[in-house]
Structures are given as C-alpha cells and as structure tokens.
Amino acid sequence: MVTGGAGFVGKELVRALRDRSDLLVADLLRYGTPDWLAGEPEGFAFRRIDIRDAAATRELIEEFAPDVIVHLAAIHYIPECDKDPANAVATNVAGTVNLLAPCPEGTRFVFASSGAVYQPDEAAHREHESVVAPVDIYGFTKQHGEDYLRTLAANRGLAGVIVRLFNVIGPGETNPHLLPAIVAQLRNNPEAISLGNTWPKRDYIDVLDAAGGFAAAALGAAPEPGSCEVVNLGSGQQYSVNDIVERMKSVLGLQFEVSQDERRMRAVDRPFLGADITRIREVFDWSPVHGLDETLKRMWDNPEFLPALEGRLT
C-alpha cells in the first residue's frame, strides 16, 4: 500500500512497484486526478482516502491487509506548513498515527521522513550521529511521525523503516519549489528570473532515484519486527541555488539574469542540508543513478506541471 501514491514521488514509486507486487494506491487527490490515474488503473488498485479520517483509514487497511505500507502522504511544502500548522499536524502526525494504529504485527511500515528533522550543520548529516533538532513546523511534524513509528513498532511488533528524504527534483513536481519556479519563469521570460535566497546548499535527488530508494526500503532486507531502521535518501551531493542556476545555463544553453525578490525569501532558511547516504547503500543496496545534469534536461524538456501548480509558480 502506497499512501500519497498520486504525488510527485508516489507516481514513480507506483511505476516501480506495480509489476512486482499486489499494489494499492491510496491518495486524497488534493491536486486533482492526474491523467495516469484516470479510467481503470493498470497493475494496481486505487482508493481515495483522507488519512486524517481515522475510521476510514482503519477500514481500508483492514480490508486490503497490506504486508508493507509506504507512507508518502503529507503536507510537504514548508510555507504551507507555516501558514496552516494545524492541518500540517493533522496530516503529517495524526495521519501517520491513523495508519500505524490498525497495522497488525509484522507489517513493514516505510515512513517518508525528511532531512528537515536534522539540526542545521555544515557537515553532511548521518543517521545515528547528527543531532535531530528541526527548525520549522514541517521538520517537527516529521520528527513526531518518526517518534510514533518507533514507539508503535516496539509496542506492536511492526518492522519500521524511517527514510529521511532530501530535496527531490524532476518532472511532475506538485509544489512550487525551486526548480519548478525557475523553469516556469524562464518559459515566460527566457531573459530574467527572480529568486529568494540563493546561498543555501541542498542535496537534490532525482525523483526516479527517490522512488528507487523507497522501493528498496519496501522490498529489500526487512528490519526485525519491533525495530526501526533509519536511512537517508539523497544524492550525496550538495548544490547552492547559485550552483543550480549556473548548471542550468551551462547544460541547457541558456543565458538569463537573476534578481532577488524579498517576497520569495524564507524567514527561516538553513544554510546547508546534505545527506550522507552510506547507510542506505549498506542496508538496502541502493545508490543513485541519475545525475543532476540529466535531471535538469528532463525537467526542462517536459516539466509536467499540474494545472493547479502553474498559477503558483510565477
């Protein structure tokens, strides 16, 4: 069972899993129904569900009885979490508990956490060494989700996997993050764009690699029931916004000016967010295969923006 299966990473994860398992895709469809979900699904079942509804969530899990749940559904966009913290907590924390509560003993529960749980640091974050101390509401909701998974895994014999995902990029984005905003602006005006903070460094991972990492966590070596494995999922490389802009100019053959827009600047923006991905290689035999230049080319050629996203990017 994949929650948030109609989303950015979920779409690619469904493609990766549908020929390898009996698959249920569960999603609220808060951005509308994508074309690939219209009509009769091929290779998987689909149910529309709001994970904030505890009774409906329990009923679905009891009906489908999944051996593995990959929980991607969440409010991901940090400004949205800041604007409506109650909904962020209801979705990201209570929604996670609603999924965990009906799971029978032995269920593998793969939780999409985030690098945002880490305390800001100039070194690449390591799962069992770096300090967990979020600085924003989104990060707090993911930390709390981790806490509930650890507790319920220990108390109920679940096999937990916490996957701390870093910044995902590629075609099909569902939130107005950096790359969609740049691409949309350049398509409107190829000579100039405006951005917020350009100095922070991030670990950018291709959406195909992100889906591959979750598939490995879902189907690879299982943790012992009652335990909880923790891995980072990123590229292992860090780039500033300025770096991304220069790579786009070089790889895509573009020339454009960049100006700063105070309206796009976040009041809280950590200077560095990088992933050490040694552990996910060791535990699940996973490594990224898609480089930044390839991802930028794919996104420029076919960004696959949702209609609902177009108006939020400029």
Summarize the structure.
By secondary structure, the chain is of the alpha/beta class. Helices cover 38% and strands 18% of the residues.
Question: What this model shows, in words?
Answer:
The chain is an alpha/beta fold. The chain has 2 domains: 2-168 and 206-233, NAD(P)-binding Rossmann-like Domain (Rossmann fold); 169-203 and 237-269 and 290-310, Alpha-Beta Complex (UDP-galactose 4-epimerase, domain 1), CATH 3.90.25.10. The chain contains 11 helices and 13 strands. It has helices at 8-17, 54-64, 78-83, 85-100, 137-156, 178-188, 207-219, 241-252, 278-284, 292-301, 307-310, and strands at 2-3, 24-27, 45-48, 68-71, 108-114, 159-165, 167-169, 192-195, 201-206, 228-233, 238-240, 257-260, 272-273. It has a 7-stranded parallel beta sheet with strand order 3-2-1-4-5-6-10, with helices on both faces. β5, α5 (137-156) and β6 (159-165) form a beta-alpha-beta unit. The protein is globular, with a radius of gyration of 19 Å.
The largest sheet, given as strand count, sense and whether it forms a barrel, is:
7 strands, parallel
* Name of the level-1 CATH class of the largest domain: Alpha Beta
Provide the CATH superfamily of the largest domain.
NAD(P)-binding Rossmann-like Domain
CATH architecture of the largest domain: 3-Layer(aba) Sandwich
Cα distance spanning the termini? 35 Å
Number of strand segments: 13
- The main sheet orders its strands as 3-2-1-4-5-6-10
The parts where pLDDT drops under 50 for at least 5 residues are none
Estimate nothing, just give the exact number of structural domains: 2
How many helical stretches?
11
Radius of gyration: 19 Å
User: What is the string of helix and strand elements?
Assistant: EHEEHEHHEHEEHEEHEEHEEHHH
- CATH names the topology of the largest domain as Rossmann fold
- The assigned structural class equals alpha/beta
